[in-house]
Design a protein that fits this description.
It comes from Haladaptatus litoreus. It holds the Pfam family Epimerase. Belongs to the NAD(P)-dependent epimerase/dehydratase family. Keywords: NAD, Oxidoreductase. It is built from eight helices and nine strands. By secondary structure, the chain is α/β, with parallel strands linked by helices. It has one domain (2-282): Rossmann fold.
């Protein structure tokens, strides 16, 4: 099975490519950069260079590869690194080009959305959701260009699956952490620093396995899925954290102990996926970084 992965040279993208290649997917990594024309990919991995914001090039490369699946992971991944309008334009155009091209090719799709689509991560003033735990049906209320680009991306996924009948899973990851590099733990003494996503996180290996689950599960149409660790990274009851910061707790609150503010029940039910990594072991775990090329 041939799988085209955009953004596969990015930090989390490398883990996705490695996970799929290890599972015997034939992965074509499509990115704005290229590791080098003379460099050979590891087993089950090859590379193509493409500007995802140019529709003709994307359509051409998808037609050439003729993939069974497409994982769209290429994007400007957050606010604050470039102008907001560039974040929006890049992410929306790339998503439109990749998803429309994949849909026309009849390829099932997994696409990167974000917990930022809810609007709390980059809000001008922190606000409480309607209920805890937050699920995929909670209203999306972004007020920033990044979160809005992810909402538009999910709308594009709706359009493509209606028109082409392909299966699309939109993954809404929390703050992605890496083995032996859990930056979220550095903010434990700063309660306001984590309020935008209510102190949630996810291990990159769990996101990679969620992407694979999205490719392999049997469902129809377009479905969003949260990708979040089972617990918050503060090692404190979520109710206590919310009450301390906001001075109140939503009337509907069903999170036990140090559980996450987000629920992954939908992914468990439809994809048979659950997060398996936790800060208490992964933060000090030594795991080699993925190597996509051979020497």
């Amino acid at each position: 099975m041939t799988t085209l992965v955009t953004g596969g040279l990015g930090r989390s993208g490398r883990w996705i490519v490695t996970t799929l290649a290890d599972a015997d997917y034939d992965v074509v990594c499509v990115d704005f950069s290229h590791p080098g024309w003379e460099i050979q990919g590891r087993e089950n991995v090859e590379f193509r260079r493409c500007d995802l914001t140019e529709f003709g090039k994307v359509t051409d490369i998808v037609a050439e590869i003729d993939p069974d699946h497409v994982v769209h992971w290429g994007a400007i991944p957050a606010m604050g690194r470039t102008a907001g309008v560039e974040v929006f334009e890049n992410n929306v155009m790339a998503t439109y080009n990749v998803l429309v091209s994949a849909g026309r090719a009849g390829a099932d799709i997994v696409a990167a959305s974000s917990e930022s689509a809810y609007g709390t991560a980059f809000a001008e003033e922190p606000w409480l959701p309607d209920y805890f735990p937050i699920d995929e049906t909670h209203e999306l209320r972004p007020e920033d260009s990044y979160g809005t680009s992810k909402v538009v991306g999910e709308n594009i996924a709706d359009m493509v699956t209606r028109k082409n009948g392909v299966k699309i899973a939109s993954i809404r990851p929390s703050w992605i952490q890496y083995p032996n590099e859990y930056r979220c733990l550095d903010t434990r003494d700063d309660l306001p620093a984590g309020v935008g996503n209510f102190w949630s996180y996810v291990d990159v290996r769990d996101i990679a396995s969620l992407v694979q689950a999205g490719l392999e599960a049997d469902f129809n149409g377009h479905e969003p899925f949260l990708g979040v660790a089972a617990e918050n990274y503060m090692d404190r009851p979520l109710r206590e954290l919310i009450a301390e910061y906001f001075g109140e707790v939503p009337e509907t609150f069903d999170v036990d102990g140090d559980g996450s503010a987000f629920t992954t029940r939908k992914a468990q039910e439809l994809l048979e996926w659950v997060p398996t990594h936790s800060w208490d072991t992964a933060a000090t775990e030594t795991v080699p970084d993925p190597q996509l090329t051979v020497d």
